[in-house]
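Budget justification aside, the reviewers requested a transparent look at the raw inputs and outputs of the sequence design task funded under Objective 1. We therefore reproduce one unedited record. The lines immediately below are the structure tokens for a 277-residue chain.
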């Protein structure tokens, strides 16, 4: 966007979405395009600003320049946009329902179950609430009109929603869309799933172990990757709430995420299908 004041530039804002490839190309010329953007910003005394949005390459770029000696690029900062944390998810789940007279009665076990199943995604939380409201119409006869609202929601009330075919399909679809943001996410998720099946390891896998399995599997997309790049991808999957990191090991945030990728044979077939490409 560009604003003018008395025929002079008031400010200039440059927005670049899906900047991963742009940043990757900049690397080939020592990041000169980004240096130029920074020079323009400085020459216009703060009247020019630019924002780059993207996936893991944005994070990778920020971390790499922070460790480098480039005094210009190291001044850049980044904001990591992640899914909801527990508090945000809890508020979206409970507050609108409370305005309609529904209450979880501070049952954190039920709330945690819903949030983990929806992976804290706002759209899935809202879908769950919509289905819950429709379902609760069947249970109004259980409540005493003299003491309601609130209408207390119990585990039995949410059980049917969490096993609803349409809801489960939406959860699976959302999970797959997250992994398909980048093919590398999907492949690494398959490798993590494969390792958990083979080694029956509930503790997860380190970046070094994932790196070695990728090399042994001879996945062409990763043939030029180093362990630092693999760790960056694993961290990105943690930011997306797909994986969790405990000490130096990575594993799925919930067992259901692994199950969404399929059985051991289905995971193996998917990996072999990628290798054969």
């Amino acid at each position: 966007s560009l604003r003018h004041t008395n025929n002079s530039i008031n400010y200039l804002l440059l927005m670049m979405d899906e900047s991963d490839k742009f940043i990757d190309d900049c690397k080939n010329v020592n990041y000169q395009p980004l240096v130029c953007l920074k020079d323009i910003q400085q020459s216009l005394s703060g009247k020019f600003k630019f924002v780059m949005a993207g996936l893991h390459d944005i994070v990778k770029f920020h971390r790499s320049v922070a460790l480098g000696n480039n005094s210009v690029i190291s001044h850049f900062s980044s904001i990591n946009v992640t899914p909801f944390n527990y508090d945000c998810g809890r508020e979206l789940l409970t507050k609108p329902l409370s305005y309609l007279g529904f209450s979880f009665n501070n049952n954190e076990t039920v709330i945690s179950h819903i949030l983990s199943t929806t992976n804290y995604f706002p759209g899935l939380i809202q879908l769950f609430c919509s289905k819950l409201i429709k379902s609760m119409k069947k249970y109004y006869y259980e409540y005493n009109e003299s003491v309601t609202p609130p209408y207390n929601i119990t585990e039995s009330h949410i059980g049917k929603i969490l096993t609803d075919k349409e809801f489960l399909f939406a959860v699976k679809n959302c999970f797959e869309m997250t992994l398909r943001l980048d093919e590398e996410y999907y492949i690494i998720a398959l490798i993590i799933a494969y390792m958990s099946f083979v080694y029956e390891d509930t503790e997860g896998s380190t970046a070094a172990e994932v790196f070695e399995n990728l090399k042994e599997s001879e996945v062409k997309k990763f043939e030029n990757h180093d362990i630092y790049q693999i760790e960056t991808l694993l961290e990105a999957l943690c930011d997306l709430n797909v994986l969790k990191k405990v000490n130096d090991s990575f594993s799925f945030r919930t067992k259901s995420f692994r199950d969404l990728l399929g059985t051991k044979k289905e995971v193996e077939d998917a990996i072999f299908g990628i290798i054969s490409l």
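The beta strands are 2-5, 8-16, 48-52, 102-103, 151-152, 205-206, 243-246, 249-252. The radius of gyration is 24 Å. Computational costs for records of this kind are itemized in the attached budget.
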